[in-house]
Amino acid sequence: MEFEEEDYNQIINYNLGNLSEAENIEIQKRMEVDKVFREEVLLYQKLPYAITEKGWPDWGHENNEQEIEKIKTLKRSELISNIESKIKSGGRQYFENQNKHRKVWRKYAVGLVAALIIVFVSIKIFNFNSLSGESLYAEYVDWENNLLSTTEQSNVENRELQGEQLFKKEEYKKAKIIFIDIIEKGKRQDSHTLMYLGASYLELEEYNDALQIFDQLLQQKSLNSNRAYWYKSMVYLKQGDISKAKEELLSLIKNKENFNYSKARELLKQLD
Amino acid sequence: MIDNKEKILSKDYFVEALLKGDDLIISEIYQRFFPKILQFVLLNKGTHAAAEDIFQESLLHIVIRVQKKSINIQSFEAYLFTVGKNMWRRELENQKKRVIKEEGYTLIDKDTNFAQFLIEHEQMELYREKFALLSDNCREILALFFNKVSYENIVEELSYATINTARQRIFKCKSKLVKFIKTDKRFKL
Fold this sequence. Notes:
The complex is a heterodimer of chains A (272) and B (189).
Chain A: H1 5-16, H2 21-33, H3 35-46, H4 65-75, H5 78-107, H6 109-126, H7 128-140, H8 143-146, H9 158-168, H10 172-184, H11 191-203, H12 207-219, H13 227-239, H14 242-252, H15 261-271
Chain B: H1 4-20, H2 23-43, H3 48-68, H4 76-101, H5 110-131, H6 136-146, H7 151-158, H8 163-182
Protein name (chain A): Tetratricopeptide repeat-containing protein
Pfam family, one (chain A): TPR_6
Organism (chain A): Aquimarina amphilecti
């Protein structure tokens, strides 16, 4: 069934929270008596979750009881129960091995530390890649111009502004805590938050975390997602991993519209 | 860069191993993929025990979807992580509801919860699949809109004449997406 354009405007505004209390009550009453209208509202409610990295709202399963029972029956079948046992025992095996490894680690810690010192000295003396990566990083990193400022965003909360200001003062640890808190409280996981959190991790040399956050930014498929290629190349540069830095830059330059396209081309020439 | 060994492994290797209940490869699955889900859960108010649970349930999710023939995996690792992430986020939403509703909240048994999540995930995949069918312009404008970029910024970003033009475009793109979704036989509410 097709509704009038006015109905759809109401549905969109209801889902955005733009209606008055009286209007909300009216919509909810209509949803109680008009099943088709209710289904349309629920469908429109779910659309954003199809493309944003957020948990979805309460689904409501009144129409799915048969399907639910089928799945439960399948899950409780002998075949699946056996697989479930194997998965659990596989897990137990893995965690036992992890514990064993931790004990072995402690046992040989002294020898390992000595070996690490030797490796560290060798890296310092012989690792030109690391040196050149770091110097290029120092040359190309430009957080002031490469991160979105809160003045460029609407609907930004005070905590984000606070985090951004701490980052600008190079208080990366405090900035990191704020941005993690914002994400954990489920308030926002938008480009701005992810950029600053990733950059904080990078400056704190927590490279794996930085890469994970920038990957999340990339997966968002938002307007600013492509910035992640540049940011990831910075992570690899700082680590001295020239080949991975180049990979990211090559991905970046596949599209002329991508962030820092010209800079990426320039940097690639230097890396060759 | 994925090397050839990983390419060969990632397609059906892990799925078949799960279906056969291959202990050795299941252990390898934990070794390779559990740390990433663990980190995600810990970073999002979870515990080690919660991460273990999510990981196991996510593997079962894949197994049952294969049995139902309602799954199309390109990368086992990426798919497993997506399921785990979504499962945990949903669990966090449910925990919030329990706190708010307290006595009025009806606890759902684990298997029902699992089944509900499976249906919801199938539907989300359908929505994403249909979203990918839209034109570049529609995807771009809806991505901005769903990420709560203001109409003013959308107009500026995409060079529309007025806010009303942008609104109409958003409405048309949403309607197209809804039509794609509803006309697919897999659609359910």
